[in-house]
Design goal:
Distance between the termini of chain A: 37 Å
Oligomer: heterodimer
Strand order of the largest sheet of chain B: 1-2-3-4-5
Largest sheet of chain B: 5 strands, antiparallel
Strand content of chain A: under 5%
Order of helices and strands of chain B: HEEEEEH
Radius of gyration of chain A: 20 Å
Number of strands of chain A: 2
Largest sheet of chain A: 2 strands, antiparallel
Number of helices of chain B: 2
Radius of gyration of chain B: 21 Å
Distance between the termini of chain B: 56 Å
Helix content of chain B: 25-40%
Shape of chain B: globular
Helix content of chain A: 55-70%
Chain lengths: ~230, ~210
């Protein structure tokens, strides 16, 4: 059981990361990652929806017949996203102002439908919970890294506007590296999102390949030594 | 088959019930939050100590030529004397669509200040109209339709008297023209702008927690 959970985490964070490997949910991923804080905000909202939707789908898996599973999943996800949107407007209104138009975008994130179909509808609730957390964290990590990279290159800052998400103390998190108006504009414009994500996917592939080469080399030397 | 249909219908009903209860639970709070935020924006131009009326409620809609959709006009008064007029207007002429801005005017027609409420201008170029990025927006303060004269209310890149943001001429011109249109409307309606009946949509929910917490 313990190792099963570990495997689910590995899948979500690295082996089968929704952003870098499955390349799912690109619409919100590319649209909001102009700054690290936007990435963090959407990442948390997506994580929340993903966990709850996994739990709901897993809990209902005995009742749902295969013919109606897709409409049911869509209904569950759309309901959850609307609830998150309303709750954010009511209790986190300043955050909802910056992220407002992106929250409904979570509906278009096929990661959530994908996990409901591929995982939660076949597994017990405990596994579905871990999978939601793992996949959500993996997605959020990609959002934050991409957002931070684009913000750093485009605006020369990091964690700007963090107070909108985390409260007033977060002003201290803001770091300015470059003076105003000297950033590379391309990074914050839409092409920057595609280029940035492409570089992240490439970096991941590079790491995997050099690791594979190393194990291969080790495998070749071993018989000689023996 | 029937059972499958029933399951789907039941789940749909459950979802609808959940949504309507969440809507009911959050409705008032969302309305008061929106009002609080609107007031906070208005207070950037007219400080809370500068008026004593219900600023949010003392409003009416007006069609201002050159601007899209009816604009909302708020009026600040101190002991029933006009203090300021705040116009929440939207111009369709931005580089990537609508720009929504708030223009504050003194009763004599002088600009108190301008704030950008919403826009989709290019990051790094057009978004310099935001006050948190540059001071460009401050150039309107103290100006009026006579000083500079109406024909000089244009971007200097186009022969006017106002600074143009480099690489954002269209954006700059849209904001300058929007402010000019508001001033032109005010000078034509100066006599009744503070007299008109308020048309606020009597939603009093949340008006008690006036001001920032």
């Amino acid at each position: 059981m313990k190792s099963g959970n570990l495997e689910i985490w590995r899948q979500g964070l690295w082996d089968n990361n929704p952003g870098l490997v499955q390349l799912l949910g690109l619409c919100p991923l590319l649209a909001v990652t102009g700054t690290a804080v936007n990435g963090l905000g959407l990442g948390l909202a997506t994580l929340f929806v993903l966990v709850i939707s996994n739990l709901a789908v897993s809990a209902m898996r005995g009742v749902i017949r295969p013919e109606i599973r897709i409409p049911v999943f869509v209904l569950v996800i759309a309901t959850l996203v609307t609830v998150v949107d309303l709750v954010m407007q009511a209790w986190f209104s300043s955050l909802s102002q910056t992220l407002g138009i992106f929250i409904p975008l979570i509906v278009t994130n096929c990661t959530i439908l994908g996990r409901a179909e591929a995982f939660a509808s076949r597994r017990p609730i405990g596994d579905a919970l871990v999978d939601g957390l793992a996949q959500g964290t993996g997605f959020a990590a990609v959002l934050i890294v991409l957002g931070a990279g684009r913000e750093l290159i485009g605006h020369g800052t990091l964690m700007a506007d963090a107070h909108l998400l985390l409260g007033d103390w977060a002003h201290t998190l803001e770091i300015t590296f470059l003076p105003q108006q000297t950033g590379l504009l391309l990074a914050v414009l839409p092409p920057g999102a595609f280029i940035g994500l492409g570089l992240m996917v490439a970096a991941r592939n590079r790491i995997i390949r050099s690791r594979a080469e190393r194990t291969e080399a080790a495998a070749q030397t071993r018989p000689q030594a023996a | 088959m029937l059972k499958t249909l029933l399951t789907l219908g039941l789940i749909g009903l459950l979802a609808a019930a959940l949504l309507s209860s969440v809507h009911l639970a959050t409705r008032d709070r969302i309305a008061s939050e929106q009002q609080r935020q609107a007031l906070a924006t208005l207070n950037q131009l007219v400080p809370e100590s500068g008026y004593d009326n219900e600023l949010i409620e003392d409003r009416f809609s007006a069609w201002i030529s050159g601007l899209s959709s009816p604009s909302t006009i708020y009026r600040a008064r101190m002991e029933s004397e006009p203090v300021a007029l705040l116009a929440d207007v939207t111009t369709p002429d931005g580089y990537s669509g609508d720009i929504r801005l708030l223009v504050g005017i003194e009763p004599d027609g002088e600009v108190i200040g301008v704030r950008i409420l919403e826009h989709r201008e290019t990051p790094g170029l057009g978004d310099k109209i935001e006050l948190k990025r540059t001071d460009w927006l401050r150039q309107f303060t103290g100006k009026s339709l006579g000083a500079p004269p109406a024909e000089a209310w244009a971007a200097d890149r186009r022969g006017g008297a106002f600074d143009t943001l480099s690489s954002a001429t269209i954006t700059s011109a849209a904001v300058i023209e929007a402010v000019r249109n508001v001033l032109a409307w005010y000078s034509a309606n100066r006599d009744n702008a503070f007299e008109l009946e308020a048309q606020s949509s009597a939603s009093s929910s949340g008006s008690e927690d006036k001001g920032k917490q």
